[in-house]
Design brief:
The complex is a heterodimer. By secondary structure, chain A is an alpha/beta fold. Chain A has a ten-stranded mixed sheet. A two-stranded antiparallel ribbon of chain A has the order 5-6. In chain A, α2 links the parallel β2 and β3. In chain A, α6 packs across α11. Chain A is globular. The model of chain A has no long low-confidence stretch (mean pLDDT 94). Chain B has 16 helices and eleven strands. The longest helix of chain B has 17 residues. In chain B, the strands form two sheets. Chain B has a nine-stranded mixed sheet. In chain B, strands 5-6 form a two-stranded antiparallel ribbon. In chain B, α8 packs across α13. Classes of the chains: A alpha/beta, B alpha/beta. Chains A and B meet through β3, α3, β8 and α9 of A and β3, α3, α4 and α11 of B.
């Protein structure tokens, strides 16, 4: 795969109830990404958006965002998954040679809809939905229990991840205020409200309002636009079976396959050694462990043994990850942006020293049924 | 930089207003089965990736691909979902093209699937939410709820469609007979297409004009049905295509240019006074797609066209806007039989969206039928040899447009 440059990006501050409209928010994100490298609307040749009609509460949710999202009179389309897949489509359009500058944006306002109720519409309408015992939270309960039982991991160990992510989020000025807590303890996490045993409130990535935008360009153009582009050198994505009973929830097959595809195209043989920082979309604290093991960053069941703090052995989610704020349709895109910031040394308080190679992931579906992984490299 | 992409097969499910005999995944699997049947050397194992799309709000299932994984053979395979309203199918086709063209490692053969099981939900309610999203704005302007109900619920798409029709009629000075003539041609063509929905072999212009108005000038007999159906198209690389079928159909140009929101957008950002029959987005899309395909004289070089026209006035308008005929001359062409099955430039010989409209599949069926016409395998095959054909899609609030130009010869791209 030819490498493609990330030349600009922007993310708005995440709020649990943003006091301004989604169209203003989209404009702010897109405008900021263009301003970062001094480009204009007319330079965009293709615009890919990422919203979900259910989350927007509106059919054809992209038709009103044409003007604010930079899509007016440009080759435009919408991916209805996570923002990280919109980046994939932008990447494909660049790789095809048809386009020289792709704008990708994604996000929504979770304050305007009941996120977890809406996700009930992802269940099979014949068997699962009428019973309503499977939704994204109870599914995560099954997943966490399955992981704990299989590998003998305790709930305290998983609470540690939530503590780490929430402490990291404190250093990230764009993270959700509700997620930030410098003094949080394992006890706080375990004693917070039970969502679906053993998942507790503070282990859940809280849905919030936010939009993020990103600019992609082919190698030649990227070097003209900026001195310091971040290169996408590998990408992989895969979808697992639908019914939870058909899957081994203690691991993540689709993440394994996505990681393999991404590492193969980036020429990475030993991810544990070569990757300096990982930004993973963990909708629940235990998913961070499951994903890092599926990606080969740790042995199965041993994810907890690695020091994943900001300047630990392998830094995972230095920005706070999805637990630091989960705006539906933007979270995966924000992971890519955070990984790019690390590679450009823009992490400030949560900068990982000497980060050269990073991975970022996105997901959709119950228990992360479909996953996407990017390998990013800095230009220095 | 970018690979040449080819279509090797396309398949359809049977379309009807209520396919209660199947579930949504089963409907999709029917289309995939029909698609793979035509390329015997290909099984699920040979498909490297999937691209999917439908309009989720019409059936009450969000991201239904997750659910239908095993019905498509997509387990442990890459899958991407694209939805853009009426153009969903066209966007799926374009995404299928880009997935192959990008040349990601291990991805050569891609199955693009568009579907809609409308009888599971209520499409008009789903479409009304397109308009109702601005309800607070309309209230601020002093428009009452009961008037809003009349404006929008009167028929979600038909409300905006009739504005477009009257605008077009004013410019071209056509009559209702001209509209009815388009419908008659489509429904008679549909009668010869095995998967079509409204098959009316003996329909006459009088029959159409004897039906009641829904909203002037559109009558009950002129508008598209709401269908259940699915369509699948197989994309692959130039090299692999030659082994899979006799006549690979090369995709030479794609574009989907968006124009401004044609009704009053947020804070009136889309100018409510825009002429919906102007369609700058469609003109720019076709310009872009033709230039990619190296087509300078669309009127001479294109042999067959499938345009997305739920309403007959749109079919007349699109063929002009896409450069197939001079402005305002399309009605004459339909009268003179130029667009008929054995005419010089046959249009919508499958019966078009006017006869079959499973929304998420419709805009994918346009390039699918065009590709089959080039291969000589279409259900209602035109007698002449088709070298170059187009598949078009329309959606959003009249502001989105997709275009795909296909040919039996690969075109080295401009760049």
């Amino acid at each position: 795969m030819e490498k493609v440059g990330i030349v600009g990006y922007n993310q708005v501050k995440l709020y649990s109830d943003a006091n301004y409209g989604r169209y203003e928010m989209i404009f702010e994100a897109v405008r900021g990404a263009l301003d970062m490298v001094g480009l204009k609307k007319k330079d965009i040749t293709t615009a890919i958006s990422c919203t979900n009609d259910y989350y927007e509460g509106r059919t054809i949710s992209n038709c009103y965002t044409v003007e604010v999202g930079g899509g007016y009179m440009s080759d435009e389309s919408k991916v209805e998954m996570d923002g990280a897949y919109a980046v994939l489509y932008g990447l494909m359009r660049i790789l095809s040679g048809n386009h020289k500058l792709a704008l990708v944006w994604g996000g929504s306002m979770a304050s305007c809809f009941p996120y977890h109720s809406t996700r009930l519409y992802e269940t099979d309408p014949t068997w699962e939905r009428p019973l309503a015992y499977v939704n994204d939270i109870t599914a995560a309960g099954f997943q966490m229990r399955s992981y704990m039982e299989k590998f003998g991991v305790s709930a305290e160990n998983i609470a540690k991840i939530a503590v780490k992510d929430r402490k990291n989020a404190t250093k990230n000025p764009l993270a959700l205020k509700e997620s930030q807590n410098p003094n949080i303890t394992i006890k706080d996490v375990l004693e917070s409200e039970i969502y679906a045993d053993p998942v507790t409130e503070l282990m859940v990535a809280q849905p919030c309002d936010g939009i993020a935008a990103l600019l992609l360009a082919p190698e030649k153009q990227a070097l003209k636009i900026t001195d310091n582009p971040v290169w996408i050198t590998g990408v992989g994505y895969s979808q697992d079976a639908y019914y939870l009973g058909d899957r081994d929830l203690s691991t993540c097959k689709s993440m394994e396959l996505a990681g393999k595809m991404a590492f193969d195209s980036a020429g990475i043989r030993n991810p544990r050694e070569e990757i300096d920082v990982a930004e993973l979309f963990e909708a629940y604290a235990h998913e961070e462990l499951i994903f890092s093991e599926a990606l080969g960053l740790a042995q199965k069941g041993k994810g907890i043994d690695i020091d994943t703090n900001i300047n630990g052995d392998l830094s995972i989610n230095p920005s706070g990850g999805a637990i630091g704020g989960n705006p539906p349709c933007a979270t995966g895109l924000i992971r890519i942006i955070e990984a790019a910031k690390q590679l450009r040394g823009e992490g400030n308080a949560y900068q990982v020293k000497g980060a050269k190679k990073a991975i970022a992931s996105g997901q959709i579906g119950m228990c992360a049924q479909n996953n996407i992984v990017y390998v990013l490299e800095g230009s220095n | 930089m970018g690979r040449q992409v080819a279509i090797v097969s396309a398949g359809f499910s049977e379309h009807a207003s209520k396919r209660s005999d199947v579930s949504m995944p089963e409907l999709v699997s029917e289309a995939i089965e029909d698609c793979l049947k035509k390329v015997p050397s290909i099984s699920f194992d040979n498909i490297d990736a999937y691209v999917n799309g439908n309009m989720p709000a019409f059936e009450g299932a969000n991201i239904p691909e997750l659910w239908m994984t095993d019905w498509m053979g997509a387990r442990n395979k890459p899958l991407m979902r694209v939805t853009t309203g009426g153009t969903t199918g066209g966007s799926v086709a374009i995404a299928g093209y880009y997935t192959v063209s990008a040349g990601l490692p291990g991805i050569d053969t891609v199955l693009a699937v568009g579907f809609e099981h409308q009888s599971q939900g209520d499409t008009s309610v789903g479409l009304a939410s397109v308009a109702y999203g601005e309800i607070s704005l309309y209230n601020t302007l002093g428009i009452s709820y009961d008037r809003l109900t009349r404006i929008f619920s009167a028929g979600a798409a038909i409300g905006v469609g009739s504005y477009q029709a009257t605008n077009y009629m004013r410019k071209t000075k056509i009559t209702e007979e001209d509209l009815a003539r388009v419908v008659v041609q489509n429904r008679r063509n549909a009668a010869k297409t095995w998967w079509a929905h409204l098959k009316m072999p003996n329909l006459t212009i009088e029959d159409v004009l004897n039906t009641p108005y829904l909203s002037f000038p559109l009558r009950y007999g002129m508008v598209c049905p709401a269908s259940d159906g699915a369509c699948a198209v197989l994309f692959t690389t130039e090299e692999k295509a030659k082994d899979m079928c006799d006549i690979p159909v090369y995709v030479n140009g794609v574009a989907s240019v968006a124009h401004e929101t044609a009704v009053m957008g947020y804070d009136s950002s889309g100018s409510g006074q825009i002429d919906p029959s102007e369609q700058l987005g469609a003109m720019k899309s076709s310009e872009l797609a033709y230039s990619q395909a190296g087509i300078s004289f669309p009127r001479k070089e294109i042999d067959y066209a499938e345009v997305y026209a739920p309403f007959p006035n749109q079919e007349l308008m699109w063929v002009e806007k896409l450069g197939l005929f001079e402005e305002t001359t399309a009605p004459q062409m339909y009268e003179n039989g130029v667009t008929a099955l054995n005419g010089e430039l046959p249009i919508c010989c499958s019966g078009g969206v006017n006869s079959t409209n499973a929304i998420g599949a419709s805009a994918l069926e346009r390039p699918a039928v065009s590709a089959l016409q080039i291969m000589g395998k279409a259900s209602n095959q035109v007698p002449k040899i088709v070298h170059t054909a187009i598949g078009h899609g329309w959606g959003g609030v009249l502001n989105l447009c997709t275009m795909m130009v296909m040919s039996d010869e690969p075109q080295r791209k401009w760049r």
